[in-house]
Amino acid sequence: MLQNSPICAGIYGDRLQRLWNLQQQPELLAGFVEVVKSNTPVEAALIILLAICVTTITETHFAIAWRKLHLKTGSLTVVGTGIQLVGHLTLAAKASIEQADKVLFAVADPVTAKWLQTLNPTAEALPYNTNNQRRRETYREMVDRILAEVRQGLNICAVFYGHPGVFAYPTHEAIKQARREGFRAQMLPGISAEDCLFADLGLDPGRNGCQSFEATDFLIRRRKFDPTSALILWQIATIGNLGFYQEEIQLRGLNVLAEVLETYYGSDHEVIVYEAAVYYPVCEPVIQHIPLSKLAEIRVTLVSTLYVPPQAPAPVDSEMMARLGMSFVKET
User: Fold this and answer.
1) 8 Å CB contact between 230 and 205
2) For residue 54, what pLDDT is reported?
3) Which of 4, 154, 255, 289 could pair with 296 as two cysteines, CB 3.0-4.6 Å apart?
4) CA–CA separation, 197 vs 305, rounded Å?
5) pLDDT tens, residue by residue, 72-117
6) pLDDT number for residue 131
């Protein structure tokens, strides 16, 4: 076996043949070496090359692979800063920011913006035009700005507050559009306000379940929900507002929300208005316990979230437990 191992008749013959095939294509071999040595993400190219290396190369295979290796230059990586300044940024997100040809950001505070510029001097803010009648128009302008840089052949890192995929229309739209145009695009996860809420309020979504809705959507679509499960409502300061923050619209929206919830929970049911801490430990999270009847009187901001605790535990279905072979154990 050892004597035959270096020749085609040996146990490594198939692999030796594939290596020989690769060596017969100098351009492909050079490309393979370039991919292996590269420090930038090249997953698609690497997969193509490896696939070819484990099959018999034909001229057709080579032509197809070579075309795929020469996709459009330029890429998009979308990352999130998390909620708390600096501390929530993942190592992967930080590396993407530092290695990008250009960084574009939409963050909630000037300190984070300044810090991003220390990580990458090219960093600049995305346009945020509050003169538009609808927020969606402003978001489209942000998408256009991101794609304009990607089309220049640059590796772009777009940085957004919190988790870049949560309540973030521009990030999802930019990635979809970039991929449609043949560019590589990806999103890296980040820490969201919901993650902070679970930690700060001691809420385990696995205990009673957890329902999460944008507040306006919750009302206008009459979303069905279970009062025996935790309920989280986002963006309560902009209920019914497709544009930008206006106090008079806020008060009307909170009144309507309170009325709807009271029909399920009662006016005395205690709820929590929550805001995650951005500058922790200098600033603590905002946690205001109030009865539902007082919701419209409380001061809320653009980052306020409403948490409605479960009304009571859901009853156990004894028939289903029997079908599952389970016995009832009363919780203490």
Assistant:
1) yes
2) 47
3) 255
4) 9
5) 689 999 999 999 888 899 999 999 999 999 999 999 788 899 999 9
6) 83
SS (H, E, C) the chain: CCCCCCCCCCCCHHHHHHHHHHHCCHHHHHHHHHHHHCCCCCHHHHHHHHHHHCCCCCHHHHHHHHHHHCCCCCEEEEEECECCCCCCCCHHHHHHHHHCCEEEEECCCHHHHHHHHHHCCCCEECCCCCCCCCHHHHHHHHHHHHHHHHCCCCEEEEEECECCCCCCHHHHHHHHHHHHCCCEEEECCCCCHHHHHHHHHCCCHHHHCEEEEEHHHHHHCCCCCCCCCEEEEECHHHCCCCCCCCHHHHHHHHHHHHHHHHHHHCCCCEEEEEECCCCCCCCCCEEEEEEHHHHHHCCCCCCCEEEECCCCCCCCCHHHHHHCCCCCCCCC
Q: Are 76 and 150 in contact (CB under 8 A)?
A: yes
Calculate ∠ Cα 141-159-110, nearest 5°: 90
User: Residues 6 or more apart from 233 whose CB is under 8 A from it?
Assistant: 213, 214, 215, 218, 257, 305, 306, 308
Tokens for 90, please give them: 């993942």
Helix axes 91-99, 110-119, angle to 10 degrees: 60
| Gap between the Cα atoms of 77 and 62, Å rounded | 29
User: What is the signed CA dihedral for 213, 214, 216, 217, rounded to 10 degrees?
Assistant: -60
Strands across the sheet containing 124-125: 124-125, 102-106, 155-160, 75-80, 184-187
- Residue 243's pLDDT is what? 67
Residue 49 token pair:
């090359």
List the beta bridge partners of residue 288.
273
Q: Confirm if 243 and 290 have CB atoms less than 8 A apart.
A: no
| Both structure tokens of 75 | 């890429």
